[in-house]
Description:
Blueprint: H1 54-57, E1 64-69, H2 84-92, E2 111-113, H3 124-142, E3 146-151, H4 157-168, E4 172-177, H5 197-201, E5 205-212, H6 217-225, E6 229-233, H7 242-250, E7 255-260, H8 282-295, E8 298-304, H9 314-338
Parallel strand pairs: 1-2, 1-3, 3-8, 4-5, 4-7, 5-6, 7-8
Amino acid sequence: MPNRRDPDTPGRGGPGERIGPLDPPPPAPRPWGEEPALGGFPWELPHNFLGLDEEASALGRAQAVILPVPYESTTSFGGGTRRGPRAILEASRYVELWDGELDRDPSRMGIHTLPALELSRAGPEAALTELEGAWERLLPQLGGRFLVMLGGEHSISGPAIRAVAAHAGSRIHVLQLDAHADLRESYEGTPFSHASVMRRVLEVADVVAVGIRGISQEEVEFARSRPGVTLVHAHEMWEDDGWMDRALEALGDPVYLTFDVDFFDPSLVPATGTPEPGGGDWYRTLRFLRRVFRERTVLAADVVELAPIPGLAAPDFLVAKLVYKLLAYADEGRRGRSTP
């Protein structure tokens, strides 16, 4: 039962009426606040992140912004990442707003959801160039609001990282949580593949990649020879928590966070195109992320590579809750920096 609904109110639906990620597109947004005469109707929850009402999701008061980018072109094993953003938004409407770890309701920061970007179909280079231009136009308009992009395949991170670095006016640092290094020069005939995304950003950023367990010899040799690339392999994460210190020591400031959901063990998130056994677990991952937001300035983030499985809602819900935790930690970090 969504936590923004009164269960005793008639006409508000129920579990049997849940919209799945592969169902037809939802109806156009209701005219919230535009017509007072329509204000008393039992409208369904808005199709935005967390299903927040107009006041809680208004851009004018929001401290965070969600940008869906359902782009998929270069996936190399399983497909379906184009459905990821919508599945995350739908599942998020069932996430409880109260955060027991932080002992507060982080949604009160205000979270605005932008319409999804429909990128060019003229090939990966054209689409990613268009996306970089969109980020370049968006960032100055957001006034420091924390932006989270929902993918889509991992190639979309490259344009975002370059745009954030240009906006910051300096070299930045990328924290990559991922099963794969994504450091190939090219893959399946294109340098704009999801398997090459981190190779493309090294001109503007250093990279710390955590959770790596699917990697080629080419990538290993490149990482060992290239300053500014740090790999924390997944097997290191199960010995003790020293890997967190090593990752943070290598991670400069400011930071862009890119989270490929195949970072998680596939027992938690099987809904991804290139699953690898032996990945991260939930609470250890959150403990690390909270440290990152406390100890570094995180400028923006993305969560990518969810490929929804029809009839299996748990991975969609986990990723939606992960996005909410990122927003909560970003808000906590912002509060901490503003405290004298």
